[in-house]
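In this section we walk through a basic example: taking a raw amino acid sequence and producing a predicted 3D structure, encoded as discrete structure tokens. The instruction is simple. Fold the sequence below.
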Amino acid sequence: MRSIALMIAFVISFTAPALAQKAEIEAINAKWIELFNKGDFSGVASLYSTDATAFPPGSAMVHGRSAIEAMWKSMAEQVGDPKLATLDVKPLGPSAAREIGTFALKTKGPTPKDVTGKYVVVWEKVDDDWKLTTDIWNEGN
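The resulting token sequence is shown next.
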């Protein structure tokens, strides 16, 4: 009986941080969407680590906050109304996590289209804040 209780405590000790990380990351994702929709691309970039890298589909890697800010500002001219759905967060220790999710957005222009896809993000705890450090996404299921 005692070994079962220890096993349950062991499992809970790993599950609780994962749930906390997921909740914190989902809150930052909501903030990302809010900032994007307001056109605050400096704010969007502030959610990334200073040495972050983004991997936009069909384009070169984008390094650093100022380049990521410019990337999102440019993309906002073509797309809008982003939505994110976190499917899984895997802790990579107390100060890192990997997130897998899906996104949806609408293209702008005379014939708007719905676009859906998937993403993988690596998060890093910088001081007390979670920051995106690696961001890659593409269309499709």
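Looking at the output, two observations stand out. The chain is about 40% helix and 40% strand. Residues 57 and 138 are 5 Å apart (CA to CA). In the next section we compare this with other chains.
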